[in-house]
Amino acid sequence: MSVTTxxxxxxxxxxxxxxxxxxxxxxxxxxxxxxxxxxxxMESGNTRVLCNATVEQGVPSWLRxxxxxxxxxxxxxxxxxxxxxxxxxxxxGKVGGRxxxxxxxxxxxxxxxxxMKALGERTVILDCDVLQxxxxxxxxxxxxxxxxxxxxxxxxxxxxTLKNSPLKxxxxxxxxxxxxxxxxxxLAYEEDSRAAVDMNVVMLANGGLVETQATAEHDSxxxxxxxxMLDFAEKGIQELLAAxxxxxxxxx
Length: 252
Fold this sequence. Notes:
CATH topology: Ribosomal Protein S5, domain 2
Number of strands: 9
CATH superfamily: GHMP Kinase, N-terminal domain
């Protein structure tokens, strides 16, 4: 009697031996900088982003006397965060287009989870500084900055400045893409640099989508592939949200 077996599909190789739908190792270190109202070192594989939250009295002029607060973000990359030195943007005398885009993305993502009326006329600034870049710096910044924001707002509640935290829910983000025909979650730089499609997904704890940025770098993608990328991203983001909750519970 003969037995016919299916031909195994070629084994997917990723530099760190992850499965296609696996995140890199995530480490979130709270209170990393003692002086900030909220501080987190966010690590995703070899990507490391320092996220600090500052609470200031007052709001931009266009919000004065509105009773509403404001949340904004700044993003920067240290000169040796990458393989070769990148000049500081202050040396060039202006903030680059990529930096503006990322700052706006982080700010939009965090504003989506804050009740500005409950915050009152205060501004929360999230400084996201990339210490080491290995892909996914903007998504790591969003995930880490939300924890820093939660810590900062929690301090206001503990101090009696606010009755309740204006943070409505958590938000997290991850990257996903198509590399060599495979949908992959949480791309490291080696994968991201040759991805045919690159996508960033920002999602709320309740499953709502804040932002999806999918770009065909080389080849177009199908609606089926788009659905698979969103499924992978949702799986990864649920794991990131769980990691956020664990850290906040431990941090008190």
